[in-house]
Every structure is written in C-alpha cells, then in structure tokens.
From TrEMBL:
Cofactor(s) essential for the protein: Zn(2+)
Keyword Transferase belongs to the record: yes
Keyword line: ATP-binding, Flavoprotein, FMN, Kinase, Metal-binding, Nucleotide-binding, Transferase, Zinc
Example of a GO MF term: ATP binding
Enzyme class: transferase
Protein name, as recorded: Riboflavin kinase
Pfam families: Flavokinase
Organism taxonomic ancestry: Eukaryota, Metazoa, Ecdysozoa, Arthropoda, Hexapoda
Lineage: superkingdom: Eukaryota
GO terms under cellular component: mitochondrion
The organism of origin for this protein: Ceratosolen solmsi marchali
Length: 150
C-alpha cells in the first residue's frame, strides 16, 4: 500500500521557532514561524510538500494556522522548509519560542507562480479555506487536544 501525507493526518509536531528566509511579512504580507531543518527532516518521507492547515499553540494560546511544507518553487529554495502562518496579528516576532502544531488537512500541492501577485492571491485563498474549515465541528475539537494544552 502506498502511503501519502493524508495517511499521517492529524500530524503532531513541536519545536522552537527559528529565523527563516525573512520574506513572509516583508514581501508577502504573511509572516511565518519557521521550524528547524531537524524537524523538517523528521517528517515521514511520504509527507507531501504543499499547503496544510490546522491548529497551533504559542505561549498557551491556540490559533488557527496555515502551513507550507516544501521548496517554495517561486523562490527556488535549496532547503525544504516548514513555514507556519498563525492567523493572528502579532506585534513582535517569537523566535526561540516553542510552537506546537496539529496538522489536520491538506489544501493543495506547492506550486510555482508567474508573479508575486499570483502567489499572494493563492496564500489569501489558502487562509480563507483554513478559516472556513477550522470552524467545522470535526476540526474545532482539536483545539482541546491535550498535545496543545499541556
């Protein structure tokens, strides 16, 4: 049987927020919390690159999140990354804080885009999908998961 990332969902991961490529908030208007290469390397080999959504816990508060796992083809990254966008406006960054996430559902594969405007449009659409889906009762229940609340 061929496994895919969907076979691993929900997926639980926790790690310290590290400095990323520093383009999320600057050029995309979408700040991200990046997890270390070591954490990215622990993902099952079958875990597909792409865009996901779920819940995140930062400093005992729970937030909706959208996450990109992959190579970010628009930017031609040489390293696979795991970038989490919390659906909340923060005043400060939170490097070195522990972030816990539960990845619940796959939205789409990672894509290359013809322009930064096309990329931003896709990100905004991903965020709207996550907001809507995370309000469903079968998704809300994960906010109470002991993993996030311990």
């Amino acid at each position: 049987m061929n496994m895919t990332s969907k076979d691993y969902l929900p997926f639980y991961v926790s790690g310290k927020v590290v400095s990323g490529f520093c383009r999320g908030s600057k050029s995309l208007g979408c700040p991200t919390a990046n997890l270390s290469e070591e954490i990215v390397e622990t993902l099952p080999i079958e875990f597909e690159t792409g865009i996901y959504f779920g819940w995140a816990c930062l400093e005992r508060k729970i937030y909706k999140m959208v996450m990109s796992i992959g190579w970010n083809p628009f930017y031609k990254n040489e390293k696979k990354s795991m970038e989490i966008h919390l659906l909340h406006k923060f005043e400060d960054d939170f490097y070195n804080k522990i972030l816990k996430i539960i990845v619940l559902r796959y939205i789409r594969p990672e894509l290359n885009f013809n322009s930064i405007d096309d990329l931003i449009k896709a990100i905004k659409n991903d965020i709207e999908i996550a907001k809507r889906c995370l309000d469903e009762s079968n998704m809300i229940k994960y906010k109470e998961d002991p993993f996030l609340n311990s």
